[in-house]
Amino acid sequence: METERTLIIGAGPAGLTAAIASARRGRETILLEKNSRPGRKLYISGKGRCNLTNNCSVQTVIDNTPTNGRFLYSALTAFPPQALMEMMEQGGLPLKTERGNRVFPVSDKAGDVVDTFVRLAKEAGAQFRQGEAEALLLSDGRVQGVRLKNGQELLCSRLIIATGGVSYPLTGSTGDGYRFAAQAGHTIVPPRPSLVPLLTEEHSGYDADGLLLKNIAIRLKDGKKKKTIYEDFGELELRRWGLSGAVVRSASAHIRQMEAGRYRLELDLKPALTEEVLDSRLQRELAVSPGQPCRVIFKTLVPQALVEDIAKRAGAVSEVPCAQVKREQRRELSRLLKSMDFHITGFRPLEEAIVTSGGVSVKEISPSTMESKLVRGLFFAGEVIDYDCYTGGFNIQSAASTGCLAASSGGNPF
Predict the structure, then answer these.
(1) One domain, residues 49 and 107
(2) Residues 14/399, Cβ–Cβ less than 8 Å
(3) Which residue in 91, 96, 277, 334 has a CA-CA distance of 20 to 30 Å to 122?
(4) Model confidence pLDDT, tens digit, residues 308-365
């Protein structure tokens, strides 16, 4: 057996960074990927643009990791956002920082991010191999390698499991890492969706299904705690079963315990206007069509596909002639446009989640090395571990940081 051979399972951001770090340290490095090409999930991240990190401090990443954020401290310190950005730019990928300190390639092409990761790994000397691991090879409390599905054995002194969670299974994230970890005796925290669309009690009509609302504000309310637990601004998509879009996925990560009737999402369709300014606008619109039912003004305030939904929510007021709309009725319309309620009933399926919360228990992984506390030579990196981050580049950054640490056992090799 090659005493310094590192075997990495999974060619996502965690596995690719681990391959670069390991090979740059002079170790024989093999990156095993069951897909025909590496980085499949990276290709679809950020709507195909790949928000690969956030231009922020280590503490900000931790603050944006609601589950086990402190566990990531050593990994993020060893390989912070600035180190990932420097590595990619030195590798020939120009980057830019956008709203919320989100970092994207200047080209806006996720494929360029994947190509840079792969090129850096190959230039460092890492070997890419297509194949699917079936089981770990363990002996005397140490990992010896893996057995592939074709029966072949790959031996190593260091094995890094970077297989991801169970979200987006078509990209290869099918929970294999959980099975390997369980074989080694690790506790698996049951996976649940994070950054996922939400099911709601209120359903959009056929006309509004798929309607993308831009520049809207949301407030996530927790009825049990009687307070707003999350606010955001951006894009939201109405669906017949509920709500989707970037702001909704971000909000979902704040729902730690789904309970019937506990959470609701308020949509502010006119965030740039105060209720007073909006009320003045309503008065002007109502004056234009005094004899028409109030509902005619909705088409001047919201997209056509949303008119029927607004009219339904407005109830009897929508049929009152514009000239007869009273002050309190008008203010009720303002409140509707500023806080359109959706009561949350559940998450969409786990397969639709961007990331998975749950996975290998952090209690059984050394935070300073990412090595298993149960089996020597076995390491974990990325989403297979029980942590999850909000949107904004934090998940890819955390995957890269844990991958680097698992491959280098402390310190930034770049």
Answers:
(1) yes
(2) yes
(3) 96
(4) 889 999 999 999 999 999 999 999 999 999 999 999 999 998 878 877 789 999 999 9
> Which two three-digit tokens encode residue 207?
């006309």
Q: What would the pLDDT profile of 224-266 be if each residue is shown by its tens digit?
A: 999 999 999 999 999 999 999 989 998 998 887 888 899 999 9
Q: Taking the CA atoms of the chain, what radius of gyration do you get in angstroms?
A: 25
Whole-number Å distance between alpha carbons of 311 and 295 = 6
Name the helix (H) or strand (E) containing 398: helix 394-408
pTM of the model: 0.82
Residues sharing a CB contact under 8 Å with residue 377, sequence separation 6 or more, in sequence order: 142, 143, 156, 157, 158, 159, 371
CA 345 to chain centroid, in Å, comes to: 21
User: How much is the pLDDT for 167?
Assistant: 53
Strand (E) or helix (H) holding 347: strand 340-347
- Same domain for 87 and 213? no
Residue type for position 121: A
Domain boundary among 288, 306, 340: 340
The tokens of 181 are what?
């970890």
Residue 414 lies in a domain: no
Residues across the chain: 414
Q: Select from 233, 305, 244, 241 the least CA-distant residue to 272.
A: 233
Q: Which domain holds residue 96?
A: 5-190+355-408
